[in-house]
Each structure stands twice: as C-alpha cells, then as structure tokens.
Input
Amino acid sequence: MGDDVTADSWISDIDMDHGPLYLAIADALEAGIRSGKLGNGFRLPPQRSLAKDLGIDFTTVTRAYAEARKRGLVEGKVGLGTYIRVEMSHTMPTRARPLPDEARRGGVVDMSMNLPPRFDDPDLTKTMRQSLARIDGDGGLSLLMRYQEPGGTHADRMAGAHYLSARIPGLTADRVLVCPGAQGAFLAIAGMLLNQGDAVCTEALTYPGFRSLASHMKMRLLPVEMDAEGMRPDSFEALCKSAAPKALYCTPTLHNPTTATMSLSRREDVLAIARTYAVPIIEDDAYGALPYTPIPPLAALAPDMVYHVASLSKALSPALRVAYVVPPDSRQVPRLVGAIRALTSMTSPITAALAREWIENGTAVRILEAIRQETAARQQIARETLPPGCFSSDPEGFHLWLRLEAPWSRGEFVDRLRGSGIGTVPSDPFAVQTPPECVRLGLGAATTRADLTQSLLSVRDLLTTLPSLSSMVI
Output
C-alpha cells in the first residue's frame, strides 16, 4: 500500500464533529496503527499540508502531532518529518504516561519557567536522596523544631564561603550571610539601602522579581540601554549624571532574559562609573556558577562597593531556597543581618543543612557538572532545530532569547504556541521601558531531550508561518 493511499485511509477516519480536533487527529492515528493501516516507519504528512487538506488551524495539527508523540505513537526527526514509531506494536497502551506535573502546567509544556534541566544520572540521584536521609538521621528533629539564626549558622556561612571561593577568592565565613532565596536577599538589601521614591538603575530588560520588589517598595527603576554585552556604560553614566540613582541592580553573567554576559572590560567600565558617582551595586549572580571559565564577578573586582547575591536555584536545585549574600565589608554584616531579621526572617534550617551537606561532601560539584552537560546537549538541540540567527543564547546557559520578525507580535506568538500546548513568556515582564518583540524560551523545563525537541519543532514551524495562516476565526 503506497503512502498516499495509507494517508487517505487514516485521514478519512478523523472525526471532525465530536470533541477537540487535535484529539480526534491523534485518535485517528492511534486507530490506524491498531488496525494495521499505518505501518511502522510510515511518514505522516507535513503539518501545514494536513492543516490545508483538513481546512483547519495549523496549530491544531501541531498540537495533534504533539499529542500523538506524548502517547508514544510517533517520533520526529529533524529535517525528515514525523514518523510512526518503529517499535510500536498493536499491544500498546491506550494512552502513554503524561508528562510530569513539573514539565506541564494546565496541560501545557511550560517553557516559560527558567529551570536547570533534569539530568539522567541514577547514581547521583541516589546520592542526593541519601543526603536527605543523612540529614534526617543526624538531627532531623532538631532542624524541624528550632528557628534558624538570621543570616545563617556559622557552619552554613562557612559552606557558603567555600561554594563562592572559586569566584570570590579569599572569602571568609564572617562576610557571608544566608538568605531564604535570592528574592529574600534583594528585599533585605533594598530595605537597608533604599527608601520610597529612590531611583535605581537596572538593565532595560531585567529580572521580573526585582521589578516586583521595586513596585512594592515604590522605587523608580531607570532603564540602562543594552547591547550584546549587557548594559551599556555610557547609558549608565548618563543616568548617574541626570538622575542620581541610589543603587544599580544588574546580572552580569548569563543575563536573564537576553543571555548576554559582560566582558571583563565592560565590568571594569561599569564599576569605574559606579565608583565615580558613589552608586552601590546589587549583583545578581544566579547563573555565575554555570560557566566553566567564569569572568570574575563584580564583587571580586570591587569588593568594597558590591552586594553579591548567589542563589542555588539555577546551579543546584530550584527547591533549595538558599542564597549566599556577600556585603561590601564586614561592617555591613550586622546591618544586613538586622534587615534579614526584619524583612525575610530565617532560611529554612532543612534546606540550609542540605545545601551545606552537598557543598561539603562534593555532591554540589557533581550536580553542577551534570547540569552543565545536560545544558550543553539541550543547547545543541536548539541550534539544530531553530532557524539560525533568530535567537540569542549562550552555550552554558539554559534559556534562549527569541527575536520575532514582523508581522509576528510577541503576544500573538505566545498565544499561538499556547494553543499548540507550549507555554512561553514574552518580553513584557522583563521590560522597564517599551518591550521588544521577543520571547524567552526555557530549555530546562522539558523532562527529556525528546520533549524539548518536539517543543522546539513546534516553535520552528510557527516561526516560518504567517500569523494569518496560523489561526482560523469563524
């Protein structure tokens, strides 16, 4: 039986009158495989062709193919199309296991979350679980039945100094404080340095959590213009002259969302300007542990003027709500401890103890390496799948900054992707001024590389389709 005849036979079985169309297409595929109409290795028609033949929305077909893949019916091959899986048999289950909840939100593959990718290392996973058991055995009740000291115990601060020592040489425990996540650290620092109405410089595209904090504290954010290396020194200096900012908040390494990393010379220029105008710096180093050969953080180049915040959520685990904070000098430590006590209270003793355990026994190094390797593999998938030149990325980071060309708008593109079962985030939450037509894609939320590939294929197909052809309104 030829491909065309077989294709016609299963397409004619699609029930167009009952239930969601994407499920009807997937059901027809499954029925065709069970009946023997569709053999192993059979190539499905291109998504656009099928959408045209059926007179339906292109994104409906994209979602149908994604559903078929989720059930284990088909597999996609870059440049070759979508095929019935060779290992399929007529004894297959009616429905394959759905993606785990952390990769899906409301039935959507959530690429809007910027998570470190899940790695496949059973031995390391076992070690991580054993760490939890050891903490429980070594004093779990004590950890559960006491308050944590604001700023962390001496042992936790020593662990933080050790964790940061490769990036900030000579760091000692007396200059490290432990906070309940980066957001708690930013709140404590801002509460100590800033007042209502104060102006704060930040990149024109910046971390949404800091935007929310500024709004809550009624601070004014001043957007510093950006280029391929991050914030531009000339724009920062112009704002220092005209607006007298009280602080600068920035992410010099693997900037979120643009993926930019400041060069050493750029960092030195920014620091020189900040010193000239006496502007303290809040350095968000969430991604600083990921590069194999990192550029020195601002806190290493100018320790007397930088509040360094290094969370563990991107380098080790989002579940570890732990951030290590390094103030400019030891004299600021008591003030910052007071701010932590007043504004964010304590870090969970259990998560702080787990972080310390992983750092002290070397598990943290192993986790970081596993994340790096999985990140590199997923970046390679992105480079092979998406059209070249349409996005910015860094091989050592796990998010992409996708630039849209007219006539696509960011809102319409995000909406169409959601209709295909993929969640992304437009530029709006990051923008201090007019948002660009861009979308951030997180490579880590997909549970497997195959899931990521399928999602990026949908992104690629949508990029090459006009908005007017990707939606049907009746």
Remarks:
- Residues 74 and 84 are 4 Å apart (CA to CA).
- Residues 122-144 form the longest helix (23 residues).
- The radius of gyration is 25 Å.
